[in-house]
Design goal:
five-stranded antiparallel β-sheet; Jelly Rolls; mainly beta; 0% helix; four-stranded antiparallel β-sheet; 107 residues
Length: 107
């Protein structure tokens, strides 16, 4: 089920992706019909534009600060904070500064 990650090893999720200048970088850890789990890094000022997901999307910021716009409402999240973005509600993600997050989508 898990890929791109060592099993039976202690991990720091934020260390699974590096920052790249002017880029959003992602690494998929799980992808199937029930769940998707991805780790992202955003350079400052980079974004994923408004879109809707086919399942409830839960994000946890691992490092830095990200801005999440969900159904027109803005949330600033810092390390350790989590937000659930409901299925079919338009949302966008923006790097207020360099930040990393874990995204889990349940279908």
């Amino acid at each position: 089920m898990y890929k791109n990650v060592e099993k039976q090893t202690k991990l720091q999720l934020k260390e699974l992706v590096e920052y790249q200048e002017h880029q959003v970088v992602s690494k998929t850890l799980v992808q199937n019909e029930a769940v998707s789990m991805t780790i992202f890094s955003f350079d400052k000022g980079e974004e994923i534009s408004t879109h809707a997901a086919g399942g409830d999307a839960m994000v946890t910021v691992l490092e830095g600060t990200g801005r999440f716009t969900v159904g027109g409402q803005v949330f600033l999240l810092t390390a350790g904070e989590t937000l659930i973005m409901p299925k079919d509600i338009p949302h966008a993600v923006y790097g207020e500064e360099r930040f990393k997050m874990q995204l889990t989508v349940s279908f």
